[in-house]
Write a structure and sequence with these properties.
Bound molecules: guanosine-5'-monophosphate, zinc ion
Number of helices: 3
Strand order of the largest sheet: 1-2-3-5-4
Helix content: 25-40%
Order of helices and strands: HEEEHEEH
Strand content: 15-25%
Largest sheet: 5 strands, antiparallel
């Protein structure tokens, strides 16, 4: 059972903020910050690795539109757009979704990135490996 599919089918209630043919957006139950919204495809795709590019394109457009809308309505100037794919990355619901997290102060949420000090050679090797 996928909780987000159940929400999409209307079997579990949600606070819906947007819907079209391909995607839906509703308030995250945990409201990490006020206005925390999830945007997801109506079709069940586990994560980014399964997501078709046409759906990804559409979601990108809606995330952009909704972010601007939320900025205006909640009178914010900052927002984090987050997407977890896979258990190690912190994904807990296995139905692809993008988090829109409005920010009100720089200390309300901690999003931290570690840094690795790579040598020039290591950077070059890595770059060659993943170059597309
Ligand atoms: P993830 O950790 O997979 O990136 O994010 C899953 C998110 O789904 C969490 O932020 C969690 O609060 C939210 N969530 C889990 N169950 C429900 C639910 O039943 N309704 C809503 N609206 N959000 C949910
Ligand atoms: Zn699902």
């Amino acid at each position: 059972m996928c909780i987000f599919c159940e929400i999409i089918k209307g079997n579990i209630p949600c606070y819906k903020v947007y819907e079209d043919e391909f995607c839906i957006a509703f308030l995250d139950i945990s409201q990490t910050s006020i206005g925390h919204t999830l945007v997801l495809p109506k079709e069940h795709y586990k994560n980014i690795f399964e997501l078709p590019e046409n759906i990804s394109e559409h979601l990108g457009k809606i995330v952009c539109k909704l972010s601007k809308h939320i900025k205006e309505k909640l009178n914010i100037s900052s927002i984090n757009i987050l997407n977890n794919n896979g258990e190690i990355a912190g994904q807990t619901v296995e139905h692809f979704h993008i988090h829109l997290i409005p920010r009100y102060s720089d200390s309300d949420i901690k999003i931290e990135f570690n840094s690795n000090n790579l040598s020039k050679e290591e950077f070059n090797e890595l770059c060659e490996k993943i170059k597309y």
